[in-house]
Amino acid sequence: MLILAIESSCDETAAAVVKDGRKVLSNVVASQIEIHSKYGGVVPELASRAHIESIYPVTEKALSDADTDISSINAVAVTYGPGLVGSLLVGVSFAKALAYALNVPLIAVNHLEGHLLSSIIEHGKVEFPYITLVVSGGHTNIYLVKAIGEYKLLGYTVDDAAGEAFDKVAKMLGLGYPGGPVIDKIAKEGEMGKIKFPKAVVRGKKLCFSFSGVKTAVLTYLKDKGFYDKRRQIILSEEMSKQFKADVARAFQESVVDVLVEKTLSAAKHYNCKVVTIAGGVACNSALRQKMYDECKREGMKLYIPNASYCIDNAAMVGIAGYYKFKREGVGATLSLNAEPRARL
Predict the structure, then answer these.
(1) How distant, in Å, are the alpha carbons of 82, 204, 332 from that of 89?
(2) pLDDT at residue 126 above 90?
């Protein structure tokens, strides 16, 4: 079964061809980093316009890379939510038109289910049940994956997602956008233990996250060190030395990573899971990957992390999730399918 998958939930336009829910024949992603970098974050209207421009050539390249023709496609899978409504609408509209023209099933995929199953791409079916940390600019969630199609949300962020906090702190330090990769890089030069930032505790919600506090702690620290112009109300990042930025970045990153690992492992122990997976853009962070690996090894757990190309938003994971959803339900979505920016899994 050949599935053409479409992903446009945020700022990456992606298309992939997946065979039998396991073999990725192609996976093409058009990034919008250059468009949004000057603003320090994703501008929804600009993202939507870029999707419109990219979705056809990206799909065409995915078919070409898979060495297949559009007439060979057996189904079209598309992310319908959660995400930015304008971005989602571009992908959903395009996928509906394709499915209608080809007279093939249309499969509506929840973006989060794609992340939960992304480890299958390289590792095959992972032993159930397992715990997955989905961590990105829009999500910081812990799920219990009982089986394909059976998911339980255990923890979530009550304010900023981890990736969002990375972006905002990077902007404070004048490091550019996206924040995750630049903080990961410069933090390697930071001095361990020189600065300490707090790790938030969410009362009554043991497995939930909060990152607004550590973000505010960084801002307060910069003000205390004199890097803030009260009159203009701006952070004076150009006056900071490279070493100072590295020390702050390391302390901030350690605070976030420690909480992510601690709560994920706590969930795994509580539900007696011997397998942990990480997904989402922040799963590319080298400090998170290393600390999670070390702690899982110490606890006798297996850790599966997709290749970086399958951690970021991509269509291969949508194709995988779409295949298994179609196998479970046996029918596709109707052409009344709409974007659902707050879709629940």
Answers:
(1) 11, 37, 18
(2) no
Angle between helices 286-298 and 242-270 (to 10 degrees): 40
pLDDT of residue 124: 84
Tokens of 315: 């269509």
Joined together, the tokens standing for residue 280 give: 């989402």
- pTM given for the model: 0.94
Compute how many other C-beta atoms are within 10 angstroms of the C-beta atom of residue 258: 14
Residue keyed to tokens 């999500």: 139
272-277 mean pLDDT: 97
Please check the confidence at residue 8 and state whether its pLDDT lies above 90: yes
Helix (H, G, I), strand (E, B) or coil at 202: coil
Instruction: State pLDDT tens for residues 42-72.
Output: 999 999 999 999 999 999 999 999 999 999 9
Express each pLDDT in 166-216 by its tens digit.
999 999 999 999 999 999 999 999 999 999 999 988 988 999 999 999 999
- For residue 229, pLDDT over 90 is answered with yes
SS (H, E, C) 17-55: EEECCCEEEEEEEEECHHHHHHHCCCCHHHHHHHHHHHH
SS3 292: helix
Q: Which of 175, 133, 136 is nearest to 292 (CA)?
A: 133
Record the tokens describing residue 306, joined without a space: 């997709």
DSSP classification of residue 280: S
Q: DSSP of 88-140, one letter per residue?
A: HHHHHHHHHHHHHHHT--EEEEEHHHHHHTTTHHHH-SPPSSEEEEEESSS-E
Q: 34 phi and psi, to 5 degrees?
A: -60, -35
Concatenating the DSSP letter of every residue in 146-200 gives EETTEEEEEE-BSS--HHHHHHHHHHHTT--SSHHHHHHHHHTTSPTTSS-----
The label of the residue with tokens 């899978």 reads 77
C-alpha closest to that of 271 among 170, 83, 143, 112 = 143
| Beta carbons of 114 and 320 less than 8 angstroms apart | yes
- Please answer whether residues 299 and 201 qualify as being in contact, where contact means their C-beta atoms are separated by less than 8 angstroms: no
Pairing between strand 130-135 and 140-147?
antiparallel
